[in-house]
Design brief:
Radius of gyration: 21 Å
Number of strands: 9
Distance between the termini: 62 Å
Bound molecules: S-adenosylmethionine
Strand order of the largest sheet: 4-3-2-5-6-9-7
Mean pLDDT: 95
Low-confidence stretches: none
Shape: elongated
Structural class: alpha/beta
Order of helices and strands: HEHEHEHEHEHEHHEEEHHHH
């Protein structure tokens, strides 16, 4: 059974009466080169378990199951159940959980199903919740070593952007606090059925084991980052003075203590500078 074959997909849809839901971000992969690459570059191998988000008809699920010890796949759309029964019938190391990834206790699921072994997340993410899903995995400190996901190309550019570049934003800083993001490869819109209006890219986030800040300083860091990027064209003293409840001259002094020019703008600051700022602003 080739799940990238359009005729095969249509047969499965007819058999179960399934039709695409745009609101659930259902663009299924039909380019046969992509899923094996996601699984390989995502670190899927013997001794590793994978959590997949959004199975569709199971095209990536099968590639993960071929390589990993165990796969747990969370899919919101129960209408896919009869299709997945057929497409995953040959794999006894796959379990599909019908649930919303934003609602489920994923840490508990991983603990229960993988029992503390090495785990990774692999997914062709539904576009409508790309950033919330990524931030949920990172912020909840899921016990996984890496997260390899397909997202819209523009989202991938923003997530992987370095400080000082136009694409750098609050999400780039937040992601690089928790992980080391890497752009893996681009995927054009013709690789999906139905074809979306945008191209995509696969990125991998290697999760950091240790984080540099205590939880309350971490919260302050993200408040400062959000405030700074909400007015990214303005010099930092302006948004930070409102956020910290300090006068502009006090903030300018604080910035100087952190080695930051008072004329600097949010996108010019490295994560390390924001971390220094979060620490010093608490003193
Ligand atoms: N992995 C398949 C592929 O590559 O062809 C499907 C990818 S499709 C872009 C996204 C999948 O995520 C869909 O099957 C959709 O139903 C599912 N999905 C959407 N929102 C979800 C949510 N909140 N929780 C779990 N799955 C979700």
């Amino acid at each position: 059974m080739r799940l990238t074959d359009i005729k095969e997909i249509k047969r499965l849809f007819e058999m179960s009466g399934f039709s695409f839901s745009k609101s659930l971000g259902q663009n299924f992969l039909i380019n046969p080169a992509v899923c094996p690459k996601i699984a390989e570059l995502g670190g899927c191998k013997k001794g590793v378990c994978a959590l997949e988000i959004g199975t569709g008809v199971g095209v990536l699920t099968r590639e993960l199951a071929e390589r990993c010890d165990k796969v747990v796949a969370v899919e919101i759309d129960r209408r896919l159940e009869p299709i997945l029964k057929e497409t995953l019938a040959d794999y006894d190391n796959v379990e599909v959980v019908f649930a919303d990834i934003m609602e489920i206790d994923a840490a508990r699921l991983i603990e229960e199903k993988f029992g503390g072994g090495e785990a990774v997340v692999c997914a062709n993410l539904p576009y409508y919740i790309t950033s919330p899903v990524i931030m949920r995995v990172l912020e909840s400190r899921l016990p996984v070593s890496a997260m390899t996901v397909m997202v819209q190309k523009e989202a991938a550019d923003r997530i992987c952007a370095k400080p000082g570049t136009r694409d750098c934003g609050a999400i780039s800083l937040a992601v690089s606090y928790y992980s080391e993001p890497k752009m893996l490869f681009r995927v054009n819109r013709g690789s999906f059925m139905p074809s979306p209006n945008v191209d995509s890219a696969v990125i991998r986030l290697d999760i950091k084991r240790e984080l540099p800040l205590a939880p309350d300083t971490e919260k302050r860091l993200f408040r400062l980052v959000r405030a700074a990027f909400a007015q990214r064209r303005k010099q930092l003293v302006n948004p930070l003075s409102a956020e910290l409840g300090k006068s502009k001259s006090e903030v300018a002094e604080l910035l100087a203590e952190c080695g930051i020019k008072p004329t600097a703008r949010a996108e010019e600051l490295s994560l390390e500078k924001f971390i220094t700022l979060a620490k010093k602003s608490a003193q």
